[in-house]
Amino acid sequence: PPLSSGPVKPLERTENAYDVSKTKPKTHYDNVMKEVRGILNKLTLTNFEKLSDDIVRIDITDPEELKGIVSIIFDKSLEEAHFCNMYARLCNKIKDMLPRFPEPNDVDPPPGQEPPPKKEVTFKRCLLNKCQEEFERADRYEDIQVEGQSAEQHAAQSRRVRMRMLGNIKFIGELYAQKILNEKIMHECVKRLLASNDEDTIECLCKLMATIGKLLDHPKAKHYMDYYFDQMAQTGEVVGKQPNGNRLKFMLRDTVDLRKNHWVPRREQTGPKTIEEIRREAAKEGIVA
Length: 289
Prior knowledge:
This protein has about 290 residues and is mainly alpha-helical. About 60% of the residues lie in helices and about 0% in strands. It has eleven helices and two strands. Strands 1-2 form a two-stranded antiparallel sheet. α1 runs parallel beside α3, α4 packs across α6 and α5 runs antiparallel to α6. The longest helix has 27 residues. It starts with about 25 loop residues before the first helix and ends in a 5-residue tail after the last helix.
């Protein structure tokens, strides 16, 4: 039967009607960002080589576009934490292949003096600046309470900021493992994590040590590492006495034992795999021919 027996009123255009033209890129920057997002949305371990080459071939004409690409990769590493290592590998591959730009110099040198050599704006430098920016952002926003904000809303805001910081630290650890970042920033990350006993932070610390501990644990840094692990052992005893604290206690103990075992894990580390790796494992186990 018909849905209506009478005349149908024609559709009227509302003030907030969807306009497809508003979503179209308007500038070269918008086009680059859209292209990068499109590639990253399809990126997997299987098509990694092809799609990372596609990013390198994008027509990047401005240093702001480099900064935009770094921000997109950071956000993707947070949205897809399981693929953190893949995004760090992506940064390592493209860091020396993307264009470099001279840094604008707005200050004129004193009369009779040569202008200082200009620094270059590179993908790697943008990456380092982003890491520093995220640290400062966490310090700046975690304790700010917006006027009229309830205690529950402030707690939720603080948790969002903290979770972003922890996600970034995990990604920064993967960047260090790819030898993109220096050791100093990793010691800053570890010290920051040691300063808190909440569940998310302890879990992040243990995962970070599993990723980069072996690289940090060399003779010159032995006194730092000894201190870190003494603190972790003490934290384990403290949280173990709290309700439901045994999980964190044993997580910390496992991490301490990992160092004692010369960073050889008791169980094989698992992560995302390519289709070809899955097929090889299945054939080895006799699941497929």
